[in-house]
Amino acid sequence: MADRDGLDAVTLRRIAADLGVHVTSLYNHVETRDAITDGIVDVLLDQAHLPVTPVDWEEWVRTFFAAMSDLATRHPGAFAALSRRPVQGARAAASFEVAMAAFARAGLSAGDAYSAVKAAVFATLGVGAERSMSARDELPETVMEDLPLESFPQFHALQDHDPTLAWSFSLETLVAGLRAQIAERASAGG
């Protein structure tokens, strides 16, 4: 339902109607709409197959980015649940524990390792949001003809540019930035 009609379409009343039951009977199984969104997050995390065994930090970042990008494409409506509810519980924590351990092995403190994981999550969710819009054919585009060439030469230079290239650029920039942070911390400590 979320993939077909968007996350906002997933309501207790709509689910009850699709199941042919009264909405109050759903309360025996789920108490709130947030509980439904949490369930969607659990399903997405199951399908993501995030690393839960030791890997190095860069492999974790690339695997996390690829898994979330894949989810955004396969579940364009449901993907929004990942930014609407806190991702919590042992399933989510297992992969983040692996990531923080990888960053710690690379020389980051516990706090910096946590910040590195959060940076990867922030960048990945942003790219994922755009990928899900693209999968729904809702990617907004600037109408170049509405912008005068003399005032917007940089935009006009993009006429034949593939906007999806920004996704891989974002990943490589994230990895390069994390690599630089790790190197800076190593040189400050050594």
TrEMBL record:
Gene3D superfamilies listed in its UniProt record: Tetracycline Repressor, domain 2
HTH tetR-type domain span: 1-48
Hydrolase is among the record's keywords: no
Residues in coiled coil: none
Protein keywords: DNA-binding, Repressor, Transcription, Transcription regulation
Keyword Mitochondrion included in the entry's annotation: no
GO MF annotation terms: DNA binding
Top-level taxon of origin: Bacteria
Listed name of the protein: HTH tetR-type domain-containing protein
Residue ranges: DNA binding: 11-30
Family matches, as PROSITE patterns: HTH_TETR_2
GO biological process assignments: negative regulation of DNA-templated transcription; response to antibiotic
